[in-house]
Amino acid sequence: MTSNHRMLLQRYVTSLGSTPSVAQKNELLDRRKLEARITAYEHRISIIIKLDDDVQWSIQDGKIPDMDPEPGEASDDMFDLYPDGWFTPEKERITLPSALASREIARLSLQSIATVEAELRKGQVTDSLEGLRLALREKSLCFRTEVRNANSQRTTHRAWDNVHKFDAEARKCRSTYRQARNALLRLSIDPEFLSTLHEITDADLKVSGDLTDENRFGQRSDTLPWFWRIGVATDTNNPRMQECTYIACYV
Fold it and tell me: Which of 42, 81, 149, 154 is the most buried (most CB within 10 A)?
């Protein structure tokens, strides 16, 4: 979805801090080439959703962030590096029913469109949770097989680089999950499904002893975070997935 690409761009801008390098500035310019896609989407959606001058947009609750912070400090100075009027897609609001304020969906008779978005968001939730589980399994596998077996400074450094890579992937999946979950909360559709979705904390992303040591004393599968017990893996026949699943879920 266009909104997901926008969120990933937000994460990248946040990670740059206030003093990006020339290479980072150039990459940002490349990543900002979402203008054509956003413009085309807004043109199509304006035909479907007829917004009037009185439309009100939702205000995000700061206590439930859509986006995970990245290392480095975000700064408004970043935007001073570009000419006035420069298109910054990461700051644009995407027109979706979930972006509207409470009661606007009913007032504008957008219930059917909101239902379609809700189904798409459910798919996002499922995909992001599966991606999160896979990233954490890979992180656990890397910790158990590479970090523990590293026998030099070079191999240790390489092993921890891989751990950090999978941790970053897990956090990206968590951000996508949060965005989709928050959209579903604003849509207020399918409360039964929403009741199965919970917040994912930093502690949930840590490599538990239950994941890295299958013979640990007092091991209990019910100490794992809730998302290990929801959803169905889509590629369990993949040898890599089977190996990761063995290490992550062995009881």
Answer: 42
